[in-house]
Amino acid sequence: MITRLYSSEDDPNLCSLWGANLTNGDVYDSDGRYEIHPAGDVKEDPRTETLREYCYGIILPIICALGIIGNVLNLIVLTRRNMRGTAYIYMRGYSAAALLAIVFAIPFGIRMLIHRDRGKWAEFGPAFYSAHLELFLGNGCLGVGVMMLLVLTIERYVSVCHPGYIRPVMGPPRVTVVVIPLLTFIIYLPSVFRGQIVKCVWELEGPYVYYRRDNTEFLGTLFYAVYKIILEVIFKLIPTILIAGFNLSIMIAYRRTCEKRRGMIISRNTCCKEDDPRKFAEERRLFLLLGSTSALFLVCVSPMAVLHMTIAAENLSSFSFQVFRALANLMELANYSITFYIYCLFSEDFRNTLIRTFKWPWFSNPLCHQTDEVNTLNRGLNKSNSTNEIGQTSK
Length: 395
What we know:
Layout lengths: L1 H4 L3 E2 L36 H32 L7 H30 L8 H38 L11 H15 L7 E7 L6 E7 L1 H4 L2 H46 L7 H5 L1 H30 L8 H17 L3 H8 L1 H11 L7 H29 L1
Parallel strand pairs: 1-2
Antiparallel strand pairs: 2-3
Helix pairs in contact: 2-3, 2-10, 2-12, 3-4, 4-5, 4-7, 7-9, 9-10, 9-11, 11-12
């Protein structure tokens, strides 16, 4: 049905067809069939194929597997009863967007590994997805994740640095997590027109095969040149600066609060050196959590911004560019895959909720055991006191 609506074309510059469309005359292969000559392709560096095998055939599946597992566990933990605050709503939105982005990265990896940049598909559907929906869906989900993280950081900043402000600052959280994806995908909608599908003949009077190529007419317009810059500013530059700045302000404000608290405790002579590391471990964990997320976002997202500004058909034959392209894709994907593991490492509340959710006794926190022992002891003392009171009453 969609092939009737989509008008693909035969491209003699990409495929050498029989008759007048042949660029170098009629050329036959060893079986007497007409050959296809991608005349528009530039000869590829032989090392690029090995690079694809390692990056998209080995490393990318590992990152995707870790990301899918981690974000599914994220969503399970963040839907528990004790995770009902405003921040957790945005964290759920971020995890859902990251999960979808990782899922959409799998067809991209398969295409790069098997079909390469231009591809060769026997069916129209996969070719249409690669040419029009692959970047739109993947980048759209990544953009939603960035916006969710930015809104979450703003809420944290206001709650710590300006506690007198009315919260939530960004409006009703459940409305915000719906509006952000809608606006993001609307902004990314022009990327649907970046590619085109070209029909080629694989053999004389044989079936068509489909290739993907850039829509040079659209990519060469002034609109797209400005649009590409606006995308990077909205979803890369501004969020990176704001997230780093807000997290730094949060760490400074929290340190001042902790120093005041220490001074008050020390002045009362109620704090000893043995209690200090345990009492203020939360401060260190918060610094590590905010610092690691800010640094990770800056390091992993910046290369992709450069890639989006420099990617072009004439650069695809360069091996160094392909190395940078693979690293940028893997780093951005890794940024959305290891959030769960950072939360487990630095957030005690998240870790305890995970343990209680899956009831893993061998990973139980000693503090949880101590709490349970204290509660059991208190219940025992209450029962013994009640028994003694009953005995005295009977006497």
